[in-house]
Amino acid sequence: MHLTLSSVTKHYGDVRAVNDVSFSLTSGERLSLLGPSGCGKTTLLNAIAGFAEISSGTIRMGDADISRIPPFKRNIGIVFQNYALFPHLDVEENLYFGLKMRGVSRRDARQAIGEALEIVRLEPFRARYPHQLSGGQQQRVAVARAIVIRPQILLLDEPLSNLDAKLRHEMRTDLLRILDDLSITTIMVTHDQAEALSLSHRVAVLNQGAIEQIDEPEALYERPATHFVAGFLGESNRFAANLTGIDGSFAKIALPNGGEWRGRATGSTPDGGPVQVFVRTERIGIGPSDGAGDNGISGTVRTVIYLGEERRLVVDTAAGEIVVKLSARDRLGSGVGDTVSLCWSAQDTIILPGGGR
């Protein structure tokens, strides 16, 4: 394994900012740390970089224990959230700074700087200063400065958060290309789910300093292991219900209002008792009548929100409020006050054990 964390914990007084975190990455693998503000993802990144001394556990790079060695000896490249470019240095000098600190002569550094700028497609801008660059160009300079030292591991701290929505979308594509070209082991901190799912081989969802689940993006989204992951990743409707039986690969559930649905049975599905049911907003359709899908319920449209490429309907039903995400071109049940029949498949009905919210 290229990087291995074993039971890493970081205390700040009585607060466990990072709580018993363990995972391993192979060479070239990309991992995103995803979670709400204050969940510990940036503290964990700083612990890997060496900026935050861990309270217990070990961090290994290959066979070497780097838990207690200073940051400048870890051979790790870092892209900070605010890019941290030197405003008084041009692009080339910004890249040369890290090499100079490592004793590399300017003559020997010239090729490495050229290669890094070529990777981020900024070779013509090497004489410009940060204030002469766009936000996206500054972000690419920050990436070039991190990779010019040829690190073993690249750390990205919210790399796209300072960009506007359109530029962030464009830079996501550029960053994916850069990371694919580099094939470097990468850990990225982000609160943006689209970034985490699209840029990483695996995603670790953190909650209160601990990893709730770590998995490949599609597996994480389609098969959440905990209530927190099911509710945090994407947008889901949540219902309290009781399990009434198992029918092959599906579980049968009863709702408090008397309705019955079917959902996916998993290894953690109990034989009976209270469960929580999650149905993602984009998996619900508008049907001509109840029963158009495996599961269905009627309701009255309370709110319609137009968002350009999609419309969000808030529907009052006997099971509670249900949010539906539809294509903006789908005009079925579009009016406030309309009665609609909602339907979705049992395969899209996620059942997790336990009651409560």
**Class of secondary structure makeup:** alpha+beta
Strand order of the largest sheet: 6-7-8-3-9-10
Strand content is: 35-45%
Radius of gyration: 24 Å
Question: What is the topological layout?
Answer:
Blueprint (H helix, E strand, L loop, with lengths): L2 E10 L2 E11 L4 E5 L6 H9 L6 E6 L2 E2 L10 E4 L11 H11 L4 H14 L15 H13 L5 E5 L7 H18 L2 E6 L2 H7 L2 E6 L2 E6 L1 H6 L4 H6 L3 E12 L2 E5 L5 E5 L8 E8 L4 E3 L7 E12 L3 E8 L2 E8 L11 E6 L4 E5 L4
Parallel strand pairs: 3-8, 3-9, 6-7, 7-8
Antiparallel strand pairs: 1-2, 1-4, 4-5, 9-10, 11-12, 11-14, 12-13, 14-20, 15-19, 16-17, 16-19, 17-18
Helix pairs in contact: 2-3, 2-4, 3-4
What does this structure look like?
The protein is α+β, with helices and mostly antiparallel strands and 357 residues long. The longest helix has 18 residues, at 165-182. Helices cover 24% and strands 37% of the residues. Helix 2 (91-101) runs parallel beside helix 4 and helix 3 (106-119) packs across helix 4. A hairpin with a 2-residue loop joins strand 4 and strand 5 (64-65). The strands form four sheets. Strands 6-7-8-3-9-10 form a six-stranded mixed sheet, sandwiched between helices. A five-stranded antiparallel sheet has the order 13-12-11-14-20. It has a five-stranded antiparallel sheet with strand order 15-19-16-17-18, with no helix packed on it. The model has no long low-confidence stretch (mean pLDDT 90).
